[in-house]
Amino acid sequence: MTLLLTVFAAIITTVKWYNRENDNMKLHVLMYMFWGASLMWFVDAIAEYVELGAEYFNPALEDMINDSFLGLSVIAFALIIWVVYLLVKDPKGVVRKSITK
């Protein structure tokens, strides 16, 4: 589930990034974080499949719920990092204007 959730987040972010008019929201940073997480979970899935074999495709309900929470946590954490990055870089100058008032 972690792989599936991060791949969906990466695809959605990539589509939004590709259809952007300008890059003032720095979507490429979020896109790379999601694709990096997807690659990490893909390698983890391969390692787990090598270890478990066919049992990998029959996870218990509890394991699926835990993996879903982990996937959602990774997405939320990436969004938090992206927001902090936006606040630090301040591409629209909003933070700078509010501080200098």
Could you tell me the number of beta strands? 0
Uncertain spans: none
How helix-rich are the residues, as a percent range?
A: over 70%
Could you spell the SSE succession in H and E letters? HHHH
**Discrete helix count:** 4
What's the Cα radius of gyration? 17 Å
Keywords:
101 residues; single chain; mainly alpha; 78% helix
Description:
The chain is mostly helical and 101 residues long. Helix content is 78%, strand content 0%. The protein contains 4 helices and no strands. Helix 1 (2-18) runs antiparallel to helix 2, helix 1 (2-18) packs parallel to helix 3 and helix 2 packs antiparallel against helix 3. The model has no long low-confidence stretch (mean pLDDT 92).
Describe, in short, the structure shown.
This protein has helices spanning 2-18, 27-52, 61-89, 94-100.
Task: Detail the topology: elements first, then pairings.
Blueprint: H1 2-18, H2 27-52, H3 61-89, H4 94-100
